Amino acid sequence: MTAPPENPPKNPIVMIPARLASTRLPDKPLADIQGAPMIVHVWRRAMEAEAGPVVVACAEEAIAEAVTAAGGQAVLTDPAHASGSDRIFEALQQVDPEGRHDAVVNLQGDLPTLDPALVRAVLRPLAEGPADIATLVVEITEPEERSNPNVVKAAVSFPAGHDSARALYFSRCPVPWDGGDDSRPLYHHIGIYAYRRPALARFVALPPSPLELREKLEQLRALEAGMRIDAARVDTLPLGVDTPADLERARALLATA
Asked: Which of 162, 232, 154, 166 is nearest to 194 (CA)?
C-alpha cells in the first residue's frame, strides 16, 4: 500500500527548459512546425494541461523572444547549466522567490505533440503518496525496445488496481530480468518529472553519482541519495524530437491535428 502524502502539492508550476545547443538537431526549440517554433507548441500543450502557470526557462534570448511573441512567459538562465533541472531551478528562483509554488513539473522542450493529460498525470504520485519526485512510465509494446539501450527502462512493481508505485531503479538494460518471457511487462521511462520544491533544491545541490555517470541517467542521482521516486503508469508515449526524422513526424502529426 502507498502511504498517504504528508503534504499534497497545492500550487504547482510547470517549467520547460530549452536551449539551442543540440548535436543531432541544431536550434531544435526554434524548428518550425506548422508555422510556430517547436517550443511554442510545447508551451501550448502545457497550457492546455491547466496544471499551473507555465514558464519556459531559456538558455538564449532567441527562445525567449519566440515564447513571449506567442504570449508565453520566458525567463533567461545561465547557458552553461549542465542539465534541465539546474536550468528550471534557476528560473524558479527568479519567478517565485517567495516559494509560493510547492511543486515543479520539469517538462522537456522537445515534446510538441504531447498529450496535455501527461502533465497532470505526473503530479498524481505526489498527491497520492510520500514521494519526493514523480515521473511517468508506459508499458513497452515493441519487442525491439526491450533491449534498446536508448529506451530507458524503469523497474516498478504496480500493486493490483494501482497505477502509481515506487520506482526502484532505472536502466538502459532490460530491468527487471524477464527470463526470456516477452509477456512479462517492461516499462519505458518517460522523462517528465514533478518535484516537491524542497526535493528539487536538494537534487540540484547533489553531485553527480556513480550510477548516474555509469548509466548516463540523471535520476539515479536522486535514488543513490535516498530520495524516493514514484512513477505513474500511463498509456501514451509522447514523441520526443531528437532527429530530423522525428521533426518530420511531428510536423505530419500536427498537420492532421
From this structure: 232
Residue 75's Cα: distance from chain center in Å?
19
Q: Mind listing the pLDDT tens digit of every residue in the chain (257 residues)?
A: 445 555 789 999 999 999 998 778 889 999 999 999 999 999 999 999 999 999 999 999 999 999 999 999 999 999 999 999 999 999 999 999 999 999 999 999 999 999 999 999 999 999 999 999 999 999 999 999 999 999 999 999 999 999 999 999 999 999 999 888 888 999 999 999 999 999 999 999 999 999 999 999 999 999 999 999 999 999 999 999 999 999 999 999 999 87
Is 219 exposed, middle or buried, given 0-12, 13-18 or 19+ CB atoms closer than 10 A? buried
Cα–Cα nearest to 138, from 191, 85, 178, 211 = 191
Find out whether 34 and 197 touch, Cβ atoms under 8 Å. no
Cell numbers at 7, concatenated: 503534504
Query: Are the C-beta atoms of 93 and 81 separated by less than 8 Å?
Result: no
Query: Ramachandran region of residue 166, left (φ > 0), alpha (ψ -120 to 50) or beta?
Result: beta
Long-range contacts of 208-211 (CB under 8 A, 24+ apart): none
Question: Cis omega before residue 17 (within 30°)?
Answer: no
Can you list the positions of beta strands (E) in the chain?
12-18, 32-33, 36-37, 54-58, 73-76, 103-106, 133-139, 153-156, 164-171, 187-196, 229-234
